[in-house]
Amino acid sequence: MINSTLKELSAALAAKKISSRELTQTFLDRIAQLNPTLNAYITVDPEKSLAQADAADQRIAQGAAGPLTGIPIAQKDIFCAKGWRTTCASKMLANFTAPYDAQVIEHFNAAGAVNLGKTNMDEFAMGSSNETSHFGAVKNPWDALAVPGGSSGGSAAAVAARLCAAATGTDTGGSIRQPAALTGITGIKPTYGVVSRFGMIAFASSLDQGGPMAKSAEDCALLLNTMAGFDTRDSTSLDRPVEDYSRDLAQPLKGLKIGLPKEYFAEGLAPDVAKAVEAAIAEYKKLGAQTVEISLPNTQLSIPVYYVLAPAEASSNLSRYDGVRYGYRAPEYTDLSDMYKKTRAQGFGAEVKRRILIGTYVLSAGYYDAYYLKAQKLRRLIAQDFTEAFKQCDVIMGPTSPTTAFNLGEKSDDPVSMYLSDIYTIAVNLAGLPGMSVPVGFGANGRPVGLQIVGNYFAEAKMLNVAHQYQLATDWHARMPGGV
Amino acid sequence: MSLTEADVKRMAHLARIEIAQQEVAPTLSQLSNIMGLVEQMQAVDTEGVAPMAHAQDLSLRLREDRVTETDQHELFQSVAPEVEAGLYLVPKVIE
Shortest Cα distance from B17 to chain A (angstroms)? Predict the structure, then answer.
């Protein structure tokens, strides 16, 4: 049951082979057994989850079930869920119970899905290893010495270890795709604006985008059908017709043009990752695709641009944590200014503080043009690289991450080296394009390798088709770590 | 251009984050490394390039000016550190 696809689970629920309560309890038991080691969840609330499961069972009995009714889904702890502790993995929000639902949570509730719990992440989604969480690091289910990636590391580990049927993540610079790659699962970051940011705790608002993390592309398509949708409460949400992201899954790939950016296969790419990615591309050729070399000349610039824009937006967004309206307040202080300063010094972790300080600096008087405005101009050049590239190909493919999962502690003292590990994912956020990661094998150390697929704006259904056809021909996505 | 300890203290003040004297030097070293990375941007000529804030280059939507929210202040204040009579309590700012 734990390896079943969402479609199979839905059919089993409809046929009364299993109840949502039984299914939910199965996952809750696995969480109780494995979470003490993996630390994938921050909050589990069996009573709440089982009440939702019972409601789903009633709905199924009434014949009113949808594709996700009764399915237990893990929610990244960045999504506000009414009545649930919602921490964003920060001491600042460790005592925060959300008084309202994110639009994504509203959609899952309306679909009758079960909220299985809130997953661990890097604090305020700032990190690539899940080590900046106030609630401790997450272990990679494939290797207890390895990080699961970040920031959606808890969701990735929960899917990989089968501690949920599927999960949600958010992606600002690679936070869905990189952990999906490092834990051997499938995840998609949609086009910016497709999934509402309402109730999704803000990090860098012009880049943040929610998306599904699951065992397969087919499952991701079903989840995205529920997650996507226009929202007047999100000022950058896109008002577009509702799509069925599953509609093209069965299309053959004959004639598909795959662009291979030469910058993604250059120095810095580990040989074992290159080998697995090249084997996946060879498989695509067998499925009828052709490849063409393309260039994304401004790739190297994406990291400096990102480390101006994201901290700048974060420094503004995180100014709301002042110890007045919600969250942590320092126990002792002398006056209002001292209360702000002590609350923020004690409530934020080291990486969050670093980014707030960088953001404050690049936005400060006299530096705005040299940094923020400069970065926004370069952002356009980076986006134009992709526009040019898509004149020659239907999708772009390359590695999701330059290496397989690194060891816990390996990069945690060296922020810049951690930042550089997101070299292949960040440009996609800057351009606002959809990107996904699909498991395509294992590296020399037995840790998973992910293939990144980047599509043109609103090409999610095409990308899911491209990923699904590969998953019909291979079984990497069905592999499960030993010992779980 | 390089950061100084005075810059670090000024940023910490502007961001309202207390920073102990012994944290200033290590913070300076980490922020300098990050700004070193950021400086690569300056090598590229962006003359005439329009800044980009959103992939679809949208302008913000307008809505009708009418009341859409209900009064939920009790619910929202239930998560505040200190509240009295519907007001958020903070240390006295006027003597």
Answer: 4
